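We emphasize that the prediction below concerns an isolated chain of 290 residues; any contacts that depend on oligomerization or on bound cofactors are therefore not represented. The input was used exactly as deposited, without trimming of termini.
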Amino acid sequence: MNNSPIFYVHFFSKSLNQFDFSNALQKLFSKFEGLKYSYFGSNYHYIFKYLSFNYEAKFEKTDRLIIDDLYKIDGSYNNVNFHLELDLFVPNFFMDKVLDIVGKIASSLKVDVYTEFFNKVIPFNKETVLETFKKAKEIFLLRYPSFSKNYYHLDSHILSASLEYLGQSTDILNHYSEKYKLERPHFYLNTKGELVILTNIDLAKPSIFPPYFDYLILPEKDSIADKKIVISYKDFVSQALKYLGNVAGLSLAYLINPKKKDKVLKIIYKKNIEKLILDLKEVSLSQITD
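Result of the prediction step, given as a token string:
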């Protein structure tokens, strides 16, 4: 989102000066995959994106310190003019991935971290920084409640599980082969303004389902203009569970037993399963936060 608040993590060192730190940093980052390097004069940065998601984090080396409350910094630390910045409203799942990189930087280069929410520079601790990031979201929305309308909010556990599933989609298909169809979660806003998750079922191949969804979309031949004919997750699973298996490595994600595919397809058309017609507005994943 444009004009979103930025969350910063600043790095400080007791052992390295700027020159030595810069050399060590570039050597370390050359070992990481998925980072895009850019430079502007004496400033340079690395952009981290996770797989095909549109979230990004910027690790930037500057020629000056960009911190307002310098009085909080212990004089024994060297200023290495290096920081992380990212949109405050990226999902916690992505921040968790970013902090894995921060952990490697901290341990490899022997640096400590600081955010404006700390009273001082501290040794890096992933849980501490992640919880601070979450708290920063809450504080910002308390100060600027109208900003909340820029995003649709989803339970953090559900959003993280959905993103993990999407992130592992290639590995899942490689594990189960192309005989299966991996179904994606689709996010919609219903007429009550509630965020709901829908997914599909394939007629030709046994489906692999995401870990969380509210409704199963009946095949396209049953669609009505821009509306969706669906059955609820609860109704589907209650009758089809005996024909489903668990997806390896993912809790709450099911797949259809290939030998039972036809039985499952019969279930979704049974008269005793309520069919619902939903009027929905699709929501982009980039509009969702936790």
